[in-house]
């Protein structure tokens, strides 16, 4: 469950204050999926970073599964971030690690005593079982994105934020990735928010909103 109330966010541009989000409100029910559209520069990535706890704001509130992010101290926010699954446009895999090591790396770092129960099932569903010893540069873009999805889901997050995950893929691979991402999240009752420029891909989502002039359409 996500509740965003009167969220404002600005950045300093020299001496000028550049307003990016302006009194933004959003309510996403538990396990709901949302596609986020909007022109380039409208603030989609900024909004995802605020939801991920990577940025802070002083104005407005963000509540995710009963945690009010604005009230968390730095340590609590770091713990919150560990529980969010992130998927990026450029995959952000570690080049020197194999597929298997990439998928397990953050899990081992953040949850060293928690077994990675879902590993086998995830790599199987994502079609990666035969690529576990490959290095990222030996994979196609679609395969790399599937690795990053496995990494994002391994620690069983309740929220996955995907920032243009198909931005580097052709249409066929984009559909595959979105189909897998939405199915995996639906099966696990995970809230998914995906930024995309594609109205076609947004059709996979039960809810679609557009960010414009710092706020979301109703
Ligand atoms: N680190 C930063 N410092 C200053 N301004 C920034 C920074 N990051 C983003 N911006 C500005 O904030 C605004 C919103 O950027 P953001 O990346 O959130 O937009 P977006 O909707 O995700 O764009 P795109 O679709 O092109 O990825 C833009 O005007 C951008 O130039």
From TrEMBL:
Q: Which GO terms describe its molecular function?
A: ATP binding
Q: Sorted alphabetically, which SMART domains does this protein's record hold?
A: AAA
Alphabetically sorted, this entry's keywords are: ATP-binding, Nucleotide-binding, Transport
Lineage top rank: taxon:
Bacteria
Against InterPro entries, the record matches this protein to: AAA+_ATPase (IPR003593), ABC_transporter-like_ATP-bd (IPR003439), ABC_transporter-like_CS (IPR017871), ABC_transpr_LolD-like (IPR015854), MacB-like_ATP-bd (IPR017911), P-loop_NTPase (IPR027417)
Domain ABC transporter: from-to ranges: 2-218
Q: State the Pfam families in the record.
A: ABC_tran
Q: Gene3D superfamilies recorded for this chain?
A: P-loop containing nucleotide triphosphate hydrolases
Protein name, UniProt field: ABC transporter ATP-binding protein
Species of the source: Alteromonas aquimaris
């Amino acid at each position: 469950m996500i509740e965003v109330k009167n969220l404002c966010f600005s950045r300093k541009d020299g001496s000028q204050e550049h307003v990016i989000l302006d009194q933004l409100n959003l309510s996403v029910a538990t396990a709901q999926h949302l596609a986020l559209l909007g022109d380039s520069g409208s603030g989609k990535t900024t909004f995802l970073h605020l939801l991920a706890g990577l940025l802070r704001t002083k104005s407005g509130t963000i509540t995710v599964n009963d945690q009010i992010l604005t009230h968390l101290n730095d340590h609590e926010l770091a713990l919150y971030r560990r529980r969010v699954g992130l998927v990026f446009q450029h995959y952000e895999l570690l080049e020197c690690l194999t597929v298997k090591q990439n998928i397990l790396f953050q899990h081992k770092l953040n949850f060293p005593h928690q077994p990675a129960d879902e590993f086998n099932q995830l790599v199987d569903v994502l079609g990666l079982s035969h690529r576990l010893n490959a290095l990222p540069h030996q994979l196609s873009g679609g395969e790399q994105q599937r690795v990053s999805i496995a990494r994002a889901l391994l620690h069983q997050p309740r929220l996955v934020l995907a920032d243009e995950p198909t931005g580097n893929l052709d249409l066929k691979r984009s559909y595959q990735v979105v189909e897998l991402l939405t199915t995996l999240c639906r099966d696990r009752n995970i809230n998914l928010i995906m930024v995309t420029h594609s109205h076609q891909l947004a059709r996979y989502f039960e809810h679609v909103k557009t960010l414009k002039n710092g706020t979301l359409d109703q």
